[in-house]
Design goal:
This protein has about 375 residues and is an alpha+beta fold. Helices cover about 15% and strands about 30% of the residues. It has helices at about 1-15, 295-305, 325-345, 370-375; strands at about 30-40, 50-60, 60-75, 80-90, 100-115, 120-135, 140-150, 155-170, 275-280, 315-320, 355-360, 380-385. It starts with a helix and ends with a strand.
Length: about 375
């Protein structure tokens, strides 16, 4: 009988072919089978046939099943055996037309015997088998297996059981979680599903949403920004540079005289430089042409203004009050004007740009009869010559 079962399984391997023998993970199955029973000699029974029914569920690489069996054995000790048990099956090549498996399990058996007392025992079994696709669709498989069973009677009994039948899957399969590839069309490192700025040029640094970085927040991305680091809130042009709407060289944010006509020379405030400008804050010691420390600070700002207009020719004009002889006042105004020019030249300005002239007390702008008037008349002016 053993040889017959092995021959049947061999023929099945040679004859049948298909796409998938075993049920898919997540499916249930039922396996009705015919059994051949070769009992231990201590049973005093003949070898005989029986039935086995298994119900199981498939997982990725293994199955879990519950089974029931029944054997009606003839012989001197005529015996009826039935039982239930649970088995774990390790399954290989589930997706192929021929699927081998190993099994092991434990269960309960009841033996109704003719010449001995009836027994109820536990048992353990192990075995191997094959599933062979019969339909090319995986809907029905031939199942053939051989089991060794150890019946925990006293004494223990070693039985061999061969099962041949069908295994029929039913129910839904587990949904395979397929890792969907989220493309990154513009290659910026942010998947298209999260990219709020598709089509970013290659090599451009982007933020987490796939948009080009704008470090200074001026609305112009870094890769186009010709003026990075613009202060927050500053209006910028398409290049990211602060606006200078009237083109006078003073940014709108600092321009106190917007709308200056084109070509107008302006100071750092964006306001037109007057033809004659009194140099505020320039003072000297009494009867002296030596600049005071605060005067030098004031002239530093004047030097910066002149540096912004390198083509501008200027006259440094000195003036005094009427206190003292006119001839003395004339020389004092000249020395003071020269002292201012020398200081501006020391700041890197070209000496050829300057003309120095003293006017003495000849051009008062206030009444020399008052202290306040005399203070106003003692001044140095810058006059634009071109």
């Amino acid at each position: 009988m053993k040889n017959s079962l092995l021959a049947l399984a061999s023929c099945a391997v040679l004859v049948f072919s298909g796409s998938q023998a075993a049920e898919a993970p997540g499916q249930w199955y039922v396996a009705p089978m015919v059994s051949a029973f070769w009992g231990d000699s201590s049973r005093f029974t003949d070898d005989d046939f029986g039935a086995h029914l298994a119900v199981g569920r498939a997982f990725e690489h293994w199955n879990l099943e519950l089974g029931g069996f029944y054997y009606d054995l003839d012989g001197p000790n005529e015996t009826t055996i039935w039982g239930v048990g649970a088995d774990v099956l390790g399954v290989w090549y589930r997706e192929r037309r021929i699927t081998p498996f190993l099994l092991a399990g434990y269960g309960y058996t009841k033996n109704d015997q003719e010449i001995r007392d009836d027994t109820q025992n536990g048992y353990a079994n192990a075995g191997l088998g094959l599933l062979i696709d019969l339909t090319r669709t995986g809907s029905v498989a031939l199942r053939a297996e051989m089991r060794y069973r150890l019946d925990f009677q006293s004494p223990t009994q070693n039985d061999w059981i061969g099962n041949v039948g069908l295994q029929i899957p039913f129910g839904g399969k587990e949904e395979t979680q397929v890792a969907m590839v989220d493309p990154d069309s513009d290659g910026d490192g942010v998947p298209d599903s999260r990219d709020k700025c598709p089509g970013t040029p290659a090599g451009v640094s982007v933020d987490g949403s796939g948009c080009p970085l704008d470090s200074d927040g001026d609305g112009v991305p870094d890769y186009l920004d010709k003026c990075p680091g613009t202060p927050s809130g500053t209006s910028v042009d398409e290049k990211g540079c602060p606006l200078d709407s009237d083109g006078d060289g003073v940014l709108d944010a600092n321009d106190q005289c917007p709308g200056t006509p084109p070509g107008t020379r302006v100071d750092s405030r964006g306001c037109e430089i007057q033809a004659v400008t009194a140099l505020e804050g320039v003072e000297f010691g009494s009867d002296s042409s030596e600049l005071t420390a605060p005067s030098k600070i004031s002239l530093d700002a004047t030097a910066a203004e002149l540096a912004r207009h390198p083509d501008m020719q200027v006259e440094i004009a000195g003036h005094t009050s009427s206190t003292g002889p006119a001839e003395y006042n004339q020389m004092l105004s000249e020395r003071r004007a020269q002292s201012v020019a020398d200081y501006l030249i020391s700041k890197g300005l070209d000496a050829d740009r300057f003309t120095v002239k003293g006017y003495g007390e000849s051009e008062p702008i206030a009444d020399n009869a008052t202290r306040e008037g005399r203070a106003r008349n003692r001044r140095v002016e810058m006059r634009i010559l071109n």
